[in-house]
């Protein structure tokens, strides 16, 4: 069975995508910081017959990243690496004039440095996979100028560039940066707690991610809404 590593997998889009893969017969290595919530997710996904390794930890820790890849190798390798774990830099979000530099550093460490570190750790296994792929979760804040989203958006823009260069440097892989669009997630609630407007469930984004796996388009940046509309 193919094996996926998914960071930030205990809830939201990470969990929804993990569940879809488990239903398709994938084996999974899941990461999140909350051990209890992560184990609950793993137990639920095992009901599909998937082998699930739940490894709580912080993706900025090199030892934890190595453990994620080692766990995947025990299941057979790494066919898909999904960098979904994210940090905002400030909760709630603030204007750049008020953004603490420690917060910006945290966003860059989680969203960019850790993502690259995990790719580097997994590259040998990804190259050896029959259809190795890397999927990074981006944001429209990486391409648009929204007030208070500067630090988070800058980190996602940097992640997009890393994904683009990785795709050019690793032609044997598929490297997709995906803007999922608006979603009702804990991350968004922490970013803008006063916004009560309804937003789509992350489950609605999953068919766009599955389409990438099924059709394996060229490496690049994709918007989930466009992928869904073109079906």
Beta strand count: 7
Q: Helix/strand/pairing class, anyone?
A: alpha/beta
What does the main sheet amount to? Answer: 7 strands, parallel
Instruction: Detail the poorly predicted runs.
Output: none
- The fraction of residues in strands falls at 5-15%
Write down the secondary-structure element order. EHEHEHEHEHEHHEH
Q: What's the arrangement of secondary structure elements?
A:
Elements: E1 3-6, H1 12-23, E2 27-32, H2 35-46, E3 52-56, H3 62-75, E4 80-83, H4 101-128, E5 133-137, H5 150-169, E6 174-179, H6 186-191, H7 206-215, E7 220-223, H8 224-229
Parallel strand pairs: 1-2, 1-4, 2-3, 4-5, 5-6, 6-7
Helix pairs in contact: 3-4, 4-5
Written overview of the protein:
The model has no long low-confidence stretch (mean pLDDT 97). Helix 3 (62-75) packs parallel to helix 4 and helix 4 packs parallel to helix 5 (150-169). The protein has 8 helices and 7 strands. A 7-stranded parallel sheet has the order 3-2-1-4-5-6-7, sandwiched between helices. The chain is of the alpha/beta class and 231 residues long. It has helices at 12-23, 35-46, 62-75, 101-128, 150-169, 186-191, 206-215, 224-229; strands at residues 3-6, 27-32, 52-56, 80-83, 133-137, 174-179, 220-223. The chain starts with a strand and ends with a helix.
Quick summary:
With 231 residues, the chain is an alpha/beta fold.
What features would you highlight for this structure?
231 residues; single chain; alpha/beta; globular; 47% helix; 15% strand
